[in-house]
Write a structure and sequence with these properties.
Bact_solute-bd_prot1; 2 domains; 6-stranded mixed β-sheet; 41% helix; D-Maltodextrin-Binding Protein, domain 2; 18 helices; alpha/beta; 4-stranded mixed β-sheet
Length: 459
């Protein structure tokens, strides 16, 4: 897990901001905007301190392209109000379920957005190395990341020793969603170990309820939820060191530990007695949108759904997401005590494609503790968290978000970033997703992993 940095005083942060932003504020606008001038609309406001040096950006626009779509996009847009009030600039937001496939195409075709929220370090590497269009952020962004994030988070946004992209949101993926009310009514206990979870699944199945429900359809990203399953099990079976070796291709993708782990996942996801409660058979998992995969829990048609903390935003309005409510989540149990309690997580990184003051100002805002707290306040139904240590956990609006933030800010947790998100784009956002989808619909484990291994780039 990343180390927690000591929070420096506000005065020291302001000095860093002024030092970094003094240069950034005078950057040339390659699109003809010229140098920054005038007094920022929010000058003198505490929340605008880091943005004052960019001057008056009234009339300027920043385009944002992201995979974050409804209903989660509403909170994103609301969190930009402080930036717009402070600078006078306008943020134009575009969310798309085709983001992963379209971003590289748009960048290579000369239609890049000003800013993109890249959810995979591997995709960031592809963008930097294959397009040459990613623009380095101003010094203030680097300073913010040093201040509010751990060293490994900065590493995830670095390519070939150059820092390009600050972390944005984060999530904890090692969760299983369930209904506390349903558990109480049936006398079921939250499992402490993997064996306990399988025993519980058998018990639920014997009651006439399919214990698990799942969905992996996600447009061009279909299949990614199954990759999370595999990564979590590898972490539990082999530990973080072997996990890192697998992610970095220091051991083959089809290593025996991976074969065994995927078979273990298959004992749940490809078990007709276990899935797909309230939806269909095993193959229905591939055609069920991931946003809808866990909803049968609310109807009592299934009892368990493995999905990340951000799934809190997918429950219908009015759903009580709490320890004693309609739904909540428990930590995905370990298979043994040998490797402690590993936590799988993910997040997005802010990449820029235009060198302009308004873009730099937006990057600076998004990397700050100010934005993290504004985003928390703008997400009343929960489903969002950040690894930004300047985030006041009290500003988070759901118990699951608070639990996730505590995990992300815990220096003793064994945290690992989502493996597929770190792999080369051809694998992590390509063959890994497509082959795992084929696996769900009938392809065997060995063929699936052999095909992914053969797709790994040679250099």
């Amino acid at each position: 897990m990343r180390s927690i940095r000591t929070r420096r005083g506000a005065a020291a942060l302001t000095v860093l901001a002024v030092a970094g932003l003094g240069l950034a504020g005078c950057a040339d606008d390659s699109d003809g905007g010229g140098e920054v001038s005038g007094t920022a609309p929010g000058a003198g406001q505490p929340e605008c301190q880091q943005l004052e040096q960019f001057g008056d950006l009234t009339g300027k626009e920043v385009s944002v392209y992201t995979s974050i779509i409804a209903p989660e996009d509403a909170a994103q847009k609301a969190s930009y109000k402080v930036f717009e009030d402070c600078t006078g600039a306008t943020v134009n937001y575009e969310g798309s379920s085709e983001f992963e496939a379209q971003l590289v195409v748009r960048v290579q075709g000369g239609n890049a957005p000003d800013v993109a929220y890249v959810p995979q370090p591997g995709l960031l590497q592809t963008l930097v190395q294959d397009t040459g269009k990613v623009v380095e952020p101003p010094q203030a962004v680097s300073d913010n990341v040093d201040e509010w994030f751990g060293e490994d988070w900065k590493t995830y946004g670095t390519v070939d020793d150059t820092f390009y992209a600050a972390p944005l949101g984060a999530n904890v993926k090692s969760f299983v969603w369930y209904s506390p009310k349903m558990f109480q009514e049936n006398g079921w206990e939250v499992p402490e170990t993997w064996d306990d979870m399988i025993a519980l699944s058998d018990k639920i199945a014997q009651s006439g309820i399919k214990p698990w429900c799942a969905g992996i359809e996600s447009g061009d990203g279909t299949g990614w939820p199954t990759t999370d399953w595999l990564e979590d099990v590898i972490l539990r079976n082999a530990g973080p060191d072997v996990y890192d070796q697998w992610v970095n291709h220091e051991i083959p993708f089809n290593d025996q530990v991976v074969v065994d782990s995927l078979d273990q996942v298959g004992n749940i996801l490809k078990n007709e007695d276990y899935v797909n409660g309230g939806i269909g058979d095993v193959k229905s998992i591939a055609t069920t949108a991931f946003q809808e995969g866990g909803l049968p829990i609310l109807d009592g048609d299934c009892a368990l759904h493995r999905q990340a903390s951000f799934y809190a935003a997918q429950w219908p309005e009015g759903t009580d997401v709490s320890e004693n409510g309609d739904v909540f989540a428990f930590y995905l149990p370990v298979t043994s005590e040998e490797f402690g309690k590993p936590v799988l997580g993910g997040g997005e990184f802010v990449a820029a494609f235009r060198d302009a003051p308004e873009v730099q100002a937006f990057q600076t805002y998004l990397s700050s503790d100010v934005w993290a707290n504004e985003k928390a306040k703008a997400t009343p139904n929960g489903g969002w968290v950040s690894a930004n240590t300047g985030l006041d956990i009290a500003n988070l609006n759901s118990p699951i978000d608070k639990l996730s933030a505590e995990i992300l800010q815990d220096p003793d947790a064994v945290f690992r970033f989502d493996g597929s998100d770190q792999m080369p784009g051809a694998v992590g956002a390509g063959s890994f997703w497509t082959e795992m989808t084929k696996w769900i619909t009938g392809q065997d484990t060995q063929t699936t992993l052999d095909n992914i291994e053969s797709s790994w780039p040679s250099n």
